[in-house]
Amino acid sequence: MKSRRALIERGGSSYRDKQECLDHLHFMSKYRLPLHGLEIVKLTMDNAETNLYKTVWFETQVNVYDIAAAFIKEQMVGEWNYAEMKV
After folding, report:
1. Is the Cβ–Cβ distance between 41 and 49 less than 8 Å?
2. Element counts in the chain: helices (H) and strands (E)
3. What's the pLDDT score for residue 2?
4. Each residue's pLDDT tens digit, 13-60
5. Residues 64, 49: contact at Cβ < 8 Å?
6. Which residues pair with 41 in a beta bridge?
7. What is the spatial distance between Cα 14 and Cα 48, in angstroms, rounded to a whole number?
8. How far is CA 34 from CA 9, 18, 58, 78, in A?
9. CA angle, 13 as apex, 56 and 76 as ends, to 5°?
10. Is the pTM of the predicted complex or chain greater than 0.85?
């Protein structure tokens, strides 16, 4: 059985699993770091696949951490198991 990695670096992008995303969001909220977008992906051997319904962009930083956490909890299911945070 393959071990699951919390953080995967690929092609200059960092992809986090669900728990790592939530932990990183907590860190970002603690230090008030901006979050501009979030993209949930399905990682394959060659690339990261996504679709329109798995991406969210934030125009303001009002409640951004709560909205992002809810989006992660709802959308990161099944094969959609990693996310890239747009900072």
Report:
1. yes
2. 2, 6
3. 58
4. 999 999 999 999 999 999 999 999 999 999 988 889 999 999 999 999
5. no
6. 82
7. 11
8. 21, 19, 10, 28
9. 45
10. yes
